[in-house]
Amino acid sequence: MSKFYSLTKSVNSIPLKWYYDLNHFEKEQLKIFNKEWIYVCHENNLKESLSYLTIKVSKVDILILKDKLNVLKAYLNTCRHRGSVICPNQNGKLKNNILICPYHQWSYNASDGKLLKTSSFKIPKNFKISNYGLKKINIKIWNGLIFINLDKKIKWKIKNRFQDYNEIVNKLGIEKYEVAHRWKKIIKCNWKLFWENYSECLHCPNIHPDLTKLVPVYGRRMVDIKDDPNWKKLKKIDHPKFQGGLRKGAETWSFDGSAHGKKIKEVEQSKNFQGFIYITTWPTMFLVIFIDHIRVVRILPKTNSETEVSAEWLFPSDTLKDKNYKIKNVVDFSVKVMSEDSHACELNQQGVYNPAYKTGILMPEEYEIKRFHDWLRKKIKILK
Fold first, then answer.
1. In the list 132, 188, 372, 373, which could disulfide-bond 115, CB 3.0-4.6 Å?
2. DSSP secondary structure letters along 224-259
3. pLDDT band at 164 (very low <50, low <70, confident <90, very high)
4. Are 289 and 279 in contact (CB under 8 A)?
5. Residue 306 pairs with which residues in a beta bridge?
6. What's the CA gap between 162 and 281, in Å, rounded?
7. d(Cα 38, Cα 282) in Å, to the nearest integer?
């Protein structure tokens, strides 16, 4: 793509009440989070058979497990008797291939969700046990990354969103990577404000001093060199500020810019690699491929004004076998960047409550926010 990316004129943002109105939040849960493929985690979080984890999406408790045959399954985490949660913990391991409700002891087969038995001494004649199995949830794995969908009618098309990156991702074999570090934070902001922050770099010089030193083009308040209408002329200047990528001599996202560990050859040899590759799929996930590791970030709304942001750092197993490798080298840098963004998003949330404003304005460099807003409007069937 040769043309510059920026908007040719300023455009209105979505209405400010979309960031706090409860009725609109419920509409988003129904129209978006109940129908889109939601990212859960890397499958190595469920390495062992009978291990499980739980996640809440759009007020729905979901149970994801690996059964005795090491097959991933997903169910509503709700007993069919009177609605108790079956697995109250965030993660754990089953004693056997049976799920038992902690309330009245109804038991289910973990492999197919079928009800095995109730705790009643006598089963009524009109009670058909085969009708009361656990409700199954759509579950798919893309290169080791687990996605679920609450709508059974929605077909798996998530790979279409990644089609521009399928080649490099398939070469990486992410499913074999190890989850070496996890981070989670509840941010006091609407989930859309986090995505908007992610989509622009007008804030970068004042919010991310270390990041703008590492990625010079961010210091120009740009996500990409093509944000500048004169980018073709400027690209001739031998400096990453105009050519993109990391500062000269830097290898990865870290405070000193060095990888300190084994480089991933598939990334190093990829065409036009400039230090990092972003892969995004709304509404809940983006991942960043670096020369030495991969960071996967999940965004889940908790309320209309709270968002859970979690991240996993993935490394090739050979890197983690190196006793001299320091994970903190890359983890701490990214945590600092995400924490800075979190604070900015919380300030943004405080401001949108001001009744003096009804809508924001998007400037030319915020074209990705415009694309995100268009996607939102389409999903909730509002065109303007």
1. 132
2. SGGGSTTHHHHTTSSSHHHH-SSPTT--SSSSSS--
3. confident
4. yes
5. 303
6. 8
7. 9
Is residue 132 within 8 Å of residue 115, measured between CB atoms? yes
Nearest-angstrom CA–CA distance, 309 and 345: 12
What pLDDT digit, counting tens, does each position of 343-377 carry? 999 999 999 998 887 889 999 999 999 999 999 99
Of 14, 64, 115, nearest in space to 107 by CA: 115
What is the SS3 assignment for 151?
A: coil
In what side-by-side order are the strands of the sheet with 178-187? 178-187, 306-315, 294-303, 285-289, 277-281
8 Å CB contact between 209 and 319: no
Please answer whether residues 250 and 217 qualify as being in contact, where contact means their C-beta atoms are separated by less than 8 angstroms.
Answer: no
Which candidate, 333, 342, 345, places its Cα nearest to that of 276? 333
pLDDT value for 109: 98
Q: How many CA atoms lie within 13 A of 44 on its CB side?
A: 18
Contact 188, 349 (CB under 8 A): yes
The rounded distance, in Å, linking the Cα atoms of 258 and 77 is 44
Cα 205 from chain centroid? 25
Check whether 2 has a pLDDT greater than 60: no
Which residues form the domain of 27? 1-35+157-384
Amino acid 323: pLDDT: 85
Same domain, 25 and 42: no
Other Cβ atoms within 10 Å of 100 Cβ, number: 19
CB 103 within 8 A of CB 119: no
**Are residues 270 and 263 in contact, defined by beta-carbon separation less than 8 angstroms?**
no
Summarize the confidence of residues 300-304 as an average pLDDT.
97
Beta-carbon contacts of 262 under 8 Å, excluding residues fewer than 6 positions away, are: 292, 316, 318, 319, 322, 325
- The pLDDT value given to residue 384: 45
Nearest to 370 by CA among 3, 15, 14, 1: 14
Check residue 1 and give its pLDDT: 43
Strand 38-42 to 51-57 pairing = unpaired
pTM to 2 decimals?
0.94
Is 44 in the same domain as 6?
no
Structure tokens at 140: 């798919």
CATH number at residue 227: 3.90.380.10
